[in-house]
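**Fold tokens**
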Amino acid sequence: MDYAEVRSTLIPKNESLDEKLNLFRTDRDEWNSKVKKYLTERNEINRQVKELITEVQKQKQVRDEANSSVKELKIKRAEHSDQLKALRAELKEKKPNEKEKFESKKNRKRSERQIRTDIDRLDNKYQRGFFQADEKKFERNMKKLYQELKDVRASKMLNEFAGLEADIRATSSLQENSHKAVEKAVDLAQEAHDLMIELSEEVDRLRERANTAQEGVIRSKREADTLHNKYIVSLRSIHSIQDLLKAMNTQERESEDYGIEKLEVNDLMTRLMSGDTLSTEELMALQRN
């Protein structure tokens, strides 16, 4: 075998593979760095998505609780409205237009007893003949007193409705407060719903980014694995070439050693045939060969 020819082929090939090996290693490490970068980005986005999903669930719970409150508060508001209508109807039935009629009466402050006393006094005067010359005056005064008595009695009847009016005012306040509570609960439910939608849209957007990052991970890992395989193949080829060169060097050395030994044996045989005395070591060497 022409070892020199083989070396002239293997050594350039080894150098070429060594250059490619360095390139494969450099490119592989760069793609592995990209893999780590995309993994970090993906994991961070997924962490944010997880937090947002938790917040979405929280807002959903707030919305559902608010909607449930709205239903309950609407029932209470309806009850208060029905109570208010019933009280107003009762007041209207018992006192139709009496309040408006007698609120303008200036003499409503006199008591029924005072008016009754004036009526008795006027009647006594009439009985004693004080109004014989002017009975019409007596009749006018008496009519006025009876009208005042009627107004006072009507005013007294209005006072009997004071409790009913107080109930109406209290129920009206309850109805108004329950209406405000309904509006507040509706606003809270709407705000929670709007925030939930906004967060859900952000989750979708982040998931798209996470998917893009995951695609980057897969693509970069595929490239890194391909380059790593090429690196391994090149490394094995280099080792094979180096092992082959070493084997060739070993065979050459063994051939050289064999030639030297062959010369030594021929020399010993010549000396022996010529009658020279050989040493014990020389004789043992001659026996080995």
Q: What stands out?
A: The mean pLDDT is 78. The helical segments are 3-94, 98-102, 112-127, 135-160, 162-273, 280-288. DSSP finds six helices and no strands in the chain. The first helix runs from residue 3 to 94.
